[in-house]
């Protein structure tokens, strides 16, 4: 079957409830570990079905936010996922409190029980209505951003379709495009403020009901962070500010000189070269064809993977009317199918999707045979190692996409992986401050954002007064939808840089390590996966500094005549 033929059937919550009750009853009365293992294997089929239908609904709702059927189904999941979470909570308790727990750990591994321990902290029946409200607010945010109709260049465009204008060689166009995009956010300022204010407050209310001081520790538990805490993350942010912000600032200064811009503004930050940013040399079909060739040459495993994705039509890549913004990879357990969603708009980001999101998809394809859903994906910060490392493993074939722009892509891609990290850390600290101070007013939140930008992104100077007020974060969906996720990109980037270094030293060993990491799925925690792969821990002082120095050395030795 192709993706369009994958059948969607709304889950029967009454039957699911009976299935869970039956399995939990078996757990309570089992005379042996084998009985519990059989029962857990049975319920995992039910769990896989629910997760598959939820993912199918979400993907199809994102592909067309105006489709009334899938909008209605999304509302069903918004209402009922918290109820389903209650069944999951009861199952988790049965597993965690099993009198045969030692036997179950031998069968399924310790990570399952570490995840359960974290998950048990995140749910009580008393929070079901709050979770329903949180889900509705998330959907409201997605719909609001997808509703953008920006009149520009004689066209009506959404946020994704405005992307090419942000990298125009014409500075006036870049300035106007920034103003047009932010005009949409300014028109909807009160709506964004209201949605975020309600999200902060409902999450804080949930945290209090669960016995937490604030949402921060709960947010970490929701993300399955079993071996590090916010104190370790705070120390990592200090490393970035001390050791990496100066390097990122240097990269921006070099770029400004190259562009010949005396007083760079925020709308100049997306352009890297006087001759224009690298652009892929073809449309969607051209890029997919080149990706297919690349992955067949890269390894036997990636060749099999890309054929599966193409043959089953598991790529929805182009921006179009009514489609939600952004890009992501989902997994459909019953079909053992990853799915890649993006919004191609003719920029180098189109190729990044075919390496970054394909890295996610390849990882979950490599771990698709795990019987328990918890092990299909690792926690988010480990997930992003696979995606960001795949971007680097694609370098030997990147000329297929960019042709004469290849050197510009390699330089800007590597430079961008460094300049991105301070932004990701800025997003993270902002969120910590928001949930430490949930009663902040909208204007106070904006002032905090702008203050953090000046610390971590000192090169960012606004001409647009709405942005100067501190509103850029409206554009960062993770702040609304997945609190505390964004730092994961930066932690993973530090790990991916290590694969970039290893790949230069010995490609075969680097790829072997990477593929084995993908096969581990979520069967180990973040720090245990680093140990498994021999990767240095980003939380340890010195790791960030070492990476920054090696990247800067490569950029300093790059032939600048190739990147005018």
Descriptive account of the structure:
The chain is mainly alpha-helical. Helices cover 65% and strands 4% of the residues. It has helices at 13-29, 33-63, 68-96, 101-108, 110-120, 128-146, 163-166, 171-187, 189-209, 215-222, 230-259, 284-298, 300-311, 349-366, 380-393, 399-402, 406-436, 442-456, 465-468, 477-481, 487-505, 507-520, 526-533, 543-556; strands at 150-152, 155-157, 315-318, 328-332, 337-344. The chain has a three-stranded mixed beta sheet with strand order 3-5-4, with helices on both faces. The protein has a two-stranded antiparallel sheet with strand order 1-2. β1 (150-152) and β2 form a beta hairpin. α14 (349-366) packs across α22 (507-520), α17 packs across α18 (442-456) and α17 (406-436) packs antiparallel against α24. The mean pLDDT is 95.
Short structural summary:
This protein is mainly alpha-helical and 564 residues long. It contains 24 helices and five strands. Helix 14 crosses helix 15 (380-393) and helix 17 packs across helix 18 (442-456).
């Amino acid at each position: 079957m192709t993706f369009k033929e994958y059948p969607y059937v709304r889950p029967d919550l009454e039957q699911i409830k009976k299935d869970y009750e039956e399995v939990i009853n078996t757990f309570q009365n089992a005379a042996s570990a084998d009985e519990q293992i059989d029962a857990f294997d049975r319920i995992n089929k039910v769990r896989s079905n629910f997760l598959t239908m939820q993912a199918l609904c979400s993907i199809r709702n994102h592909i067309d936010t105006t489709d009334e059927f899938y909008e209605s189904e999304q509302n069903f999941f918004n209402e009922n996922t918290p109820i389903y979470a209650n069944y999951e909570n009861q199952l988790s308790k049965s597993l965690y409190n099993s009198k045969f727990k030692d036997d179950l750990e031998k069968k399924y591994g310790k990570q399952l029980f570490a995840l359960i321990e974290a998950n048990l902290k995140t749910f009580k029946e008393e929070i079901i209505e709050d979770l329903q409200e949180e889900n509705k607010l998330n959907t409201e945010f997605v719909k609001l951003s997808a509703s953008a109709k920006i009149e520009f260049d004689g066209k009506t465009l959404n946020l994704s379709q405005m992307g090419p204008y942000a990298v125009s060689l014409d500075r006036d166009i870049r300035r106007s495009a920034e103003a047009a995009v932010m005009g949409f956010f300014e028109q909807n300022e009160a709506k964004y403020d209201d949605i975020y204010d309600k999200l902060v407050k409902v999450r804080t209310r949930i945290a209090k009901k669960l016995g937490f001081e604030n949402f921060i520790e709960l947010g970490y538990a929701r993300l399955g962070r079993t071996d590090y805490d916010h104190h370790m993350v705070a120390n990592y942010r200090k490393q970035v500010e001390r050791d990496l912000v100066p390097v990122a600032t240097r990269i921006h200064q070099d770029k400004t000189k190259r562009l010949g811009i005396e007083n760079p503004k925020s709308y100049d930050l997306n352009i890297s070269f006087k001759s224009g940013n690298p652009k892929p040399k073809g449309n969607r079909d051209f890029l997919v064809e080149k990706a297919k060739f690349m992955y067949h040459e890269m390894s036997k495993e990636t060749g099999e993977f890309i054929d599966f994705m193409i043959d089953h039509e598991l790529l929805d890549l182009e921006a179009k009317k009514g489609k939600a913004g952004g890009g992501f990879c989902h997994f459909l357990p019953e079909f053992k199918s990853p799915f890649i969603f993006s919004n191609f708009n003719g920029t180098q980001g189109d190729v990044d999707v075919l390496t970054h999101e394909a890295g996610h998809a390849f990882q979950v394809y490599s771990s698709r045979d795990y019987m328990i859903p918890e092990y299909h994906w690792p926690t988010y910060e480990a997930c992003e190692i696979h995606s960001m490392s795949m971007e680097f493993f694609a370098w030997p074939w990147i000329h297929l996409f960019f042709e004469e722009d290849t050197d510009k892509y390699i330089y800007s891609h590597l430079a961008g992986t460094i300049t991105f990290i301070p932004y990701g850390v800025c997003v993270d600290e902002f969120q910590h401050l928001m949930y430490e101070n949930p009663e902040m007013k909208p204007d106070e939140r904006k002032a905090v954002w702008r203050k953090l930008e000046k610390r971590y992104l000192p090169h960012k100077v606004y001409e647009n007064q709405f942005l100067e007020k501190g509103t850029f974060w409206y554009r960062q969906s993770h702040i609304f939808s997945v609190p505390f996720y964004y730092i994961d990109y930066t932690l993973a980037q530090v790990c991916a840089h290590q694969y970039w270094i290893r790949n230069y030293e010995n490609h075969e060993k680097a790829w072997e390590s990477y593929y084995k990491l993908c096969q581990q799925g979520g069967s180990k925690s973040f720090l245990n996966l680093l140990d498994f792969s021999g990767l240095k821990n980003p939380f340890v002082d010195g790791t960030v500094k070492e990476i920054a120095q090696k990247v800067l050395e490569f950029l300093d030795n790059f032939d600048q005549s190739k990147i005018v």
